[in-house]
């Protein structure tokens, strides 16, 4: 039952990210975090504003976010969003609202992107749109394994299909 029931998690996340600033909260402006792992992969995240979670100081709620991921032997991945929830201990980040991912000639857009370094997984969901020079795609969710770069794109309802549009050489769909 829990797999098919739509949860209120997404609305709770948006509410928490968009909460008004309170005078005694820990507000940080123009913040930047940089990390590098044992394999030499780099992760940099920047935000115009950030609030440290009072109940868990390892969590920072960010606004106007830009993240750069430089994996070994790979091009830079740029992620942007209006809001994000960043864990300073394990670097896991949940981006939300107007999320965009730029990688080479590929552009992904969605409402949520969950980046987990612990699981080596990127989950992109809620109104996923993929655009490239020759095609476009619409789906409910995409998952990318960071280590082997394998991608799964699917719909939540197995009766629905992923919509793919491709342009032919003469420019027609």
Description:
The chain contains 1 helix and 10 strands; from the N terminus they run αββββββββββ. It starts with 8 loop residues before the first helix and ends in a 7-residue tail after the last strand. By secondary structure, the protein is mainly beta. Strand 2 and strand 3 form a beta hairpin.
Q: Estimate the mean pLDDT confidence.
A: 82
| Rg value | 17 Å
Question: Structural class of the helix and strand makeup?
Answer: mainly beta
- Total count of helical runs of at least 4 residues: 1
The SSE string, one letter per element, is HEEEEEEEEEE
Query: Kindly, what is the distance between the CA atoms of the first and last residues, rounded to a whole number of angstroms?
Result: 40 Å
By DSSP, the count of extended strands is 10
Could you give a quick summary of the protein structure above?
The chain has 173 residues and is mainly beta. The chain has one helix and ten strands.
Features:
single chain; 173 residues; mainly beta; 10-stranded antiparallel sheet; 1 helix; globular
Give the secondary structure arrangement, pairings included.
Blueprint: H1 9-17, E1 26-36, E2 42-52, E3 59-70, E4 76-87, E5 93-103, E6 106-116, E7 121-131, E8 135-145, E9 151-154, E10 163-166
Antiparallel strand pairs: 1-2, 2-3, 3-4, 4-5, 5-6, 6-7, 7-8, 8-9, 8-10
């Amino acid at each position: 039952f829990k797999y098919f029931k739509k949860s209120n998690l997404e609305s709770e996340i948006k509410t928490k990210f968009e909460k008004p600033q309170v005078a005694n909260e820990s507000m940080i402006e123009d913040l930047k975090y940089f990390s590098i792992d044992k394999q030499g992969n780099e992760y940099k995240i920047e935000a115009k504003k950030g609030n440290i979670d009072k109940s868990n100081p390892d969590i920072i709620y960010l606004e106007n976010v830009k993240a750069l991921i430089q994996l070994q032997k790979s091009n830079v991945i740029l992620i942007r969003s209006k809001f994000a929830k960043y864990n300073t201990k394990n670097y896991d980040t949940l981006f939300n609202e107007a999320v965009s991912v730029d990688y080479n000639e590929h552009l992904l857009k969605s409402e949520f992107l969950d980046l987990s370094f612990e699981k080596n997984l990127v989950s992109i969901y809620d109104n996923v749109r993929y655009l490239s020079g020759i095609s476009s795609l619409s789906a409910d969710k995409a998952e990318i394994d960071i280590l082997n770069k394998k991608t799964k794109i699917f719909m939540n309802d197995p009766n629905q299909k992923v919509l793919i549009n491709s342009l032919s050489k003469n420019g027609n769909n």
